[in-house]
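Minutes, project check-in
Item: structure for the 190-residue chain
Input as provided by the requester:
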Amino acid sequence: MVKKVVVFTLFFIIILLAGCTATETFDEVKLSETALISKEFIEAQGYNVLNYKGNLYSYALSDQVSSAYESNLQKVHVRKTWQVQETELEEFRDSQIVEETFLIENHPLDNWKSEGGSYESTGKTYANVLISDGEVIGGTSSPALKETPAGNAQFSLDGKTFEDIHPNVEWREWADYWTEKYYDYLMFES
């Protein structure tokens, strides 16, 4: 009888502890630690999270030259991300950087229209949050469009353009500098 009480008590404690873990689900998707940090950050900025789109990329800036098979498409995306950051990628050398993507609303880009009006936001925005060592280090945003044009522009997480962040710098000059300094040293997680 005592054995049954002990087994029942242990079973009850295990069930209780399992229900107290720090995981959260969103749209029936279990959020990773970085996704949860990102979601909380987005909500703290006053944006409404509608959907979790997933982990876009995970990469690090290394002191070693990356292998030839690293995707140029991935590298171009990372360059476009860092062109709208107020910090330098160098500050995070040898740290893993994770990008978590959400569909949000109540963001300045919800009402975005392209020059000439060819493209228009659907009233929602994509937010990519950059996480390193458990901390938000930046991110990007882009309007959710019905039809995405090639070379879709990136904005900072709060909707600023390259020109807003780097007012006295020509984009081509910045891109050439960034490519020369970082391009060959990006290591992507498989």
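Outcome recorded: The chain has one domain: 30-188.
No further action items on this chain.
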